Amino acid sequence: MTDAAIAVAASAVWKFHGDYPALRDIELSILPGQCVALLGRNGAGKTTLLRIMAGLSSAGRGTIRIFGNPVRERETRRRVGVLGHGISIYDELSAIENLRLFGRLYGLANPDRSANEWLERTGLDRARNGLVREFSRGMRQRLAVARAFLHEPDVLLLDEPFTALDDRAIAVLQDVLRRAREQGRTIVMSTHQLREALDLASHVALLNRGKLGYFGERTPEMLADTGWLYRHYDV
Amino acid sequence: MTDAAIAVAASAVWKFHGDYPALRDIELSILPGQCVALLGRNGAGKTTLLRIMAGLSSAGRGTIRIFGNPVRERETRRRVGVLGHGISIYDELSAIENLRLFGRLYGLANPDRSANEWLERTGLDRARNGLVREFSRGMRQRLAVARAFLHEPDVLLLDEPFTALDDRAIAVLQDVLRRAREQGRTIVMSTHQLREALDLASHVALLNRGKLGYFGERTPEMLADTGWLYRHYDV
Amino acid sequence: MNFLRQSLTIAAKDLRAELRTKEAIQASLSFALVILLLFSFSFDPSEDEMRALSGGLLWIVFAFAGALILNRTFAREIPNDCLDALVAAPIAGAALFLGKALASFILLFVMELVCFPVFGIFYNIGWTAQFWPLMLVLVLATWGFTVIGTTFSALTVNMRLREIMLPLLVYPLMIPCLLAAIRLTSQLVAGQPLDPEVMVWMRLLVGFNIIFTSLALVLVESVLLG
Amino acid sequence: MNFLRQSLTIAAKDLRAELRTKEAIQASLSFALVILLLFSFSFDPSEDEMRALSGGLLWIVFAFAGALILNRTFAREIPNDCLDALVAAPIAGAALFLGKALASFILLFVMELVCFPVFGIFYNIGWTAQFWPLMLVLVLATWGFTVIGTTFSALTVNMRLREIMLPLLVYPLMIPCLLAAIRLTSQLVAGQPLDPEVMVWMRLLVGFNIIFTSLALVLVESVLLG
Amino acid sequence: MREKIIYGMALLAAILLARNLHSTFLVLPDEANQGMIYRIMFFHIPAAWTALLGCAVALVASVMFLITKNFRYDALAVAVTEVGLAFLAVNIVTGSIWGRIIWGIWWTWDARLTSAFACWLLYFGYLMLRGAIDEPTRRATLAAVFSIFAFADVPIVIFSIKWWRTQHPQPVFWGGGSMDSAMWLTTMLNWVALMLVGAVFLLVRLRQEEAQREIDSMRRMVHAI
Ligand code: HEM
Ligand SMILES: Nc1ncnc2c1ncn2[C@@H]1O[C@H](COP(=O)(O)OP(=O)(O)OP(=O)(O)O)[C@@H](O)[C@H]1O
Ligand SMILES: Nc1ncnc2c1ncn2[C@@H]1O[C@H](COP(=O)(O)OP(=O)(O)OP(=O)(O)O)[C@@H](O)[C@H]1O
Ligand SMILES: [Mg+2]
Ligand SMILES: [Mg+2]
Q: A129 in contact with E at a CB cutoff of 8 Å?
């Protein structure tokens, strides 16, 4: 398989925080259309790996390629959508201004149209001119989702997207993610909420103290018993 | 029943953020030994209510009494343990120094002994002299639990204690909480992780846009189907 | 004296955390040196003029560098929401305030003590002629600064513009205290004793401290509870 | 000119957010006033002395008040981890830097423009005799300040002691630029033209800007990625 | 009803101001050694009094807010601070003009001028402080505390001319000086006029504040999902 046919390819990735190796020798090939649940205990290195994939932090050793290109290249970044712990939207701007800003930065042909479309899809159209400062937590998270999906990225990197959301907000997010899967987008998401994640995932990657303990398809056992994975692959 | 026999009594509590009522007319009597799961959608007012119970914020109208006394009284505060969103421990101090500090502030007879005891109970005894700055997220959360339980409070107020914890850390916390229940302590905890919460809870309080939608025992239906509650009591 | 013990516990905690990282004290010291340096570039006075200016110069340096220390007083509690735990603990707001003020006072005082000899060397000025009265002025003025700074550190701790709001609100309030400190310091650095004429300023300083310390102790509970 | 368009988008975003809250500009303006006030009673010069001091006084005020604006440049991105989204977006680090620098420059320049007349009134000094050369000096020195400040704002944005580190790192680096600005401003406020003697300083200013602007544009990518 | 009161007060203020302007410029003679410019005092002095009174009202409102937690007092405190700030600005600007004419300089750093300027800055800081806090209860509480601290500067403004030697004239209305009875009357009447103007501003501002609160909560309701 050529490099360009692999959505996210990590080869021998190490990351050190001082002397401590937060990631050790990660080898990973995620194909287009796969939805990977990135699991692991606290401190396993999920956030670290996702940030390197997103180009927000550099790997100590090894490289990550997205569709065969380095992550920091402009063209690559245009194809990647990131949703981190923070929501990355501006409190002093309105919902529509936030989306318009990112639409422009991503060089969309018609930032306004995309922005309105995504406001509608996340159920925020009534609040489009409200300042984000006045939004409730659920509304903010929805807007953050809209921002991450705005430029219709081929690869989506999500860090604990379900945390602290209520059932309704989770439903919106799951719906958006499911649609993205249907459209053939690649998704990598870290989470501790195994049920929600495994429900959606086609593949599972398990990090164990910075090492990749398991990478493969999500099997029916996992779905039936969420403890199964940790019992089998985590020491 | 006399006032002093009610662990947490809220009478006609309102809280306004400006004109917006974050809590409306909350009436609640939690008896000693009950374990209440405080549920509700994003923005329902869970954090607001817990903070008022903890004396961290004042009610706009109405009062909350703990064993019959106002929450801001010194004696009352000595009987209450709080674990909020943040972990409330100092990064620059070691684990034992943190616990010793709070032991002194709570006026414990022997801060050192209690501190060591709780370090052991949360599995942190090997890291007792390590600076918290170097702890992983799971270790921090354990230390935070130790801090909240250190003075053996009669009333425990926990705001989303399970968030972002892995299964092992959740197990430690559940174990500690179960033991607290057995000792007859009163527990109020908010969460979006219904399964973990309902497993532990004896009672359920459901907030719906600042109003108390349901307060009563946890029934077997709830445990069997976590969606049941919201379908029945939330509009 | 439970109250006092709790204050001391808080102060000890702050000082220990500070000694471990040394961030506030190092930063304020180097900031003070940078400002002294900047001033020596900008103004070029003779020695006599310098003596007359010394009070003003020193206290401006103290005010700017001290704001960094005072800013940390409550900012220190932000990272893990530690302030919540302190407010929830069974200690009086006034005890918390006093403990924090004490720790800041010590840090400020150390910073100022280091600045004096440096200033003497940079500008070739002997400043020790009236050593003890000078220390008295230093203690009084620093306490005034500490009380106001600590109060406003608590006030601004959860604000968006914390680092800006603190000096902005504190300096105008500090003016009487600063003015008195400047006059007294200039007088003493020039080697003149505290004669009756400048005792007016001393009284102002004492009055200022009494008024603001009591105001702070009364109001701190509402500030912390918000 | 995709690059330029992106810079302008960033600058427009920053200015819009700033205009909505007006916090940085208001704060730096009132801080400037507060400092003018502090200085005025710390030092008490005659009018002629004042003219000679004016450059030093003004630029110290600009340096202190400006640090607040520059601090906000990247601090603005902290609350919701917005910087991550900007770094992840397909725009060059240099474009991001330029956009932010532009916004800060405008804010700084406005602040300085307001300070001049206020200074003129408070110290009774006519400063308009050499208006356009003065503006030139102002633009050049402010740009130097902006470039260094913006770079260090990016560098310190994730530090615990952000508000302290910025001035600490920036002021010493700024000394050549400040020195030139001070000499030139004093000269021009006193009504004297830019004669060959002070043109040395002008050249220094231009050289400073060229060197640091290029350095910043080259290095910004590594600063942002950390 | 409230509308009518506002209009009535505004009308009264206008009439009074017209009368005072008439007597200031057409009836009263030039002063012996100041000439024409002394007339600015009919605005300078009452503006100062109105402003300082505003500070005192703000203090009382702030204390009352801390005691009762009633947001009306908070609204009153903001409104009266804003109005007071405007009058203090009038005082400082008129004083500055006055100084330009008779001292030859716009400004000097004597105790009165400095403390008045510091007072202005402090109360401006009060407004900035409010701007920096989003949560209404917290904003009101902290602003009230600040207002109490800030009031400490007001006695200094008032007594500065007694405590220190200042370039600013010594008091003429209290503690010593004497004044022509016609000038006295005009000053007092103009004070009443300015207070009326201030009260009108205050009422309008209060209503605006109320409307703003209503709009805010309505917008929240609309946005809430
Ligand atoms: C910007 C400059 C000035 C400021 C900020 C200022 C401020 C004030 C203030 C705050 C008051 C009222 C305080 C009180 O009555 O207790 C006052 C009163 C007064 N001012 Fe000024 N002033 C300024 C300039 C001047 C000048 C230039 C003159 C005239 C030469 C002047 C003459 C007076 C007089 C006669 C009073 C009434 C004093 C009394 O009887 O209490 N002021 N000024
Ligand atoms: N800035 C840092 N400095 C030092 N060590 C760090 C830093 N960030 C992370 N680490 C360490 O790297 C390891 C991996 O952290 P990471 O945040 O990636 O874990 P995670 O899998 O996301 O955990 P969690 O489930 O708690 O979010 C941890 O042991 C952590 O202590
Ligand atoms: N500081 C504040 N200023 C204004 N409104 C606030 C503030 N804090 C909370 N609110 C509002 O009060 C309501 C209740 O908030 P609260 O944080 O208690 O909700 P919650 O139930 O804890 O939600 P979550 O599940 O998201 O934590 C929300 O509508 C929120 O927007
Ligand atoms: Mg993580
Ligand atoms: Mg909450």
A: no
